[in-house]
From TrEMBL:
Organism: Chitinophaga ginsengisegetis
Taxonomic superkingdom: Bacteria
GO MF assignments: heme binding; oxygen binding
Protein name: Hemoglobin
C-alpha cells in the first residue's frame, strides 16, 4: 500500500485501527486488552481517534484522563516496562508501514514521550522503593 501523510481524521482512523489490529493479536500484550481489560472496542476506538487527532492535528476534542485507566489496569496486571516497549514497537511499526511525512514523525515522537512518562509512573507505583536503592553514601567510603 502506498504510504500517505497524516492529514485528516480518516488518516487518524487508519492509524488507530491498524495499530489496534496489531495489538489485539499480539503475543506479548494482546491478552492485556482481550482478557484482562476486556476492552469494549466500539467504545474505546473513537476515544483513541480523538486522542490522536488532538496530538497530531489539533482537533478531536479529547477530554479524558490518559493516566487513570492505566493506573486502574496496573492494579489488575502490573504494566511492566517490557509491555510498554512492545506497545511502542507496534505503534512505530504501524506508522512506518502506512505513513510518511512530518506528522508521521510527530506521531512517533509523541508516542515515545507519553509511553516514557506512563512507563515511568507505573514503575514508581510498582516499585515504590526503587529510588531508595541508590545509596546516598557510598558504603565503601566509610572512614
Ligand atoms: C502496555 C501499554 C498499554 C496498555 C496495556 C494499555 C491499555 C489500555 C486499556 C486497557 C485502556 C482502556 C480501554 C477501555 O476503555 O476499556 C487504555 C486506554 C487508553 N490508552 Fe492505553 N495502554 C497502554 C499504553 C498506552 C500509551 C503509551 C498511550 C499513549 C501514547 C495510551 C493511550 C491511551 C488512551 C488515550 C486511552 C483512553 C483513556 C480514556 O478513556 O480517556 N495507552 N489503554
Amino acid at each position: 500500500m502506498e504510504k500517505r501523510e497524516i492529514a485528516n481524521r480518516n488518516d487518524i482512523i487508519l492509524l488507530v485501527d491498524s495499530f489496534y489490529d496489531k495489538v489485539k493479536t499480539d503475543d506479548v500484550i494482546g491478552f492485556i486488552f482481550n482478557d484482562v481489560a476486556k476492552v469494549d472496542w466500539p467504545h474505546h476506538l473513537p476515544i483513541m481517534y480523538n486522542f490522536w487527532e488532538g496530538l497530531l492535528l489539533d482537533g478531536g476534542n479529547y477530554k479524558g484522563n490518559v493516566m487513570d485507566p492505566h493506573f486502574k489496569l496496573n492494579k489488575l496486571i502490573p504494566l511492566e516496562p517490557a509491555y510498554f516497549d512492545r506497545w511502542l514497537q507496534l505503534f512505530e511499526a504501524t506508522v512506518a508501514e502506512n505513513f510518511t511525512g512530518e506528522k508521521a514523525t510527530l506521531a512517533v515522537t509523541r508516542a515515545r514521550s507519553v509511553k516514557g512518562i506512563m512507563s515511568f509512573k507505573m514503575n514508581q507505583v510498582n516499585r515504590p522503593d526503587s529510588d531508595k536503592q541508590i545509596p546516598l553514601v557510598n558504603p565503601g567510603n566509610k572512614q
